[in-house]
Amino acid sequence: MIDLTVENGVWTATINRPDKANSLTTAMLGELADIAARAGTEGARALILTGTGRVFSAGADLEEAHAGLATNPVWERLSGAIAALPCLTVAALNGTVAGGAMGMVLACDLRISVAGAKVFYPVMRLGFLPQPSDVPRLVRLIGPARASMILMAGQKIDAPEAQAWGLIDRVVEEDVTTVAHSLATDALAASPDHASAIKRMIWTG
Predict the structure, then answer these.
(1) What is the Cα–Cα distance from 28 to 7, expressed in whole angstroms?
(2) Where residue 35 sits, what CATH number does that domain have?
C-alpha cells in the first residue's frame, strides 16, 4: 500500500490506500520508514511523499490505533528518518492530512498542497499525546499559539490559512507531485555534498 518510484535521483513514496482515506497501518509506517532510511544510504537526491485520491492521510488506521499503534515508536522512526536525510524532502499534499500523519509532513523541508486540503491533529479529543518530535517542529514553523490552535483547540486549518501561518509553503492548482518534482530541479543540478551542506546550514544554523 506504499508505492515507490525512483527516477533520476527523485524518490516518490505514495500512500495508496484511498478506500481507507490512506490511513496508516503499522506495516505501512514501517515501509515508509524503511524507504526513508534507504533513501539516505542509496543516494536519493530528493524524497517526495504524497498520496492517492482526495486525502493525503487520515492518520492511524482506527482499528490498529486502538490496539496500540497511536503510541508505537514507528511514528518517530519515520519522522526521524525523514528529518535525517541530507537531500531535499517535500510533502506533496494531494488532500487533507490528519493526526499522526502530520509527523512525516512536519519532518519534510517543504510542504505544498492542493487548495482544498485541511490540516488537523485531534490528539486532545482522542486522548493521545502527539509524537514527541512533532510538537517542536510544529512550534518552530507556526509558533506556540497557533500550535495550540491545532493541538489543544482541535481546529481544522484549511490550506490557504495554513499557508498564511507558514505551515504550508505553497498552495498549487497543478498536480502536486509534478510541482514537487520541479522544486527539486536545483537540488538535482547540484552535487550531493553541496546540497547537503546547504541543508545543514538551513536547519542547524
Answers:
(1) 22
(2) 3.90.226.10
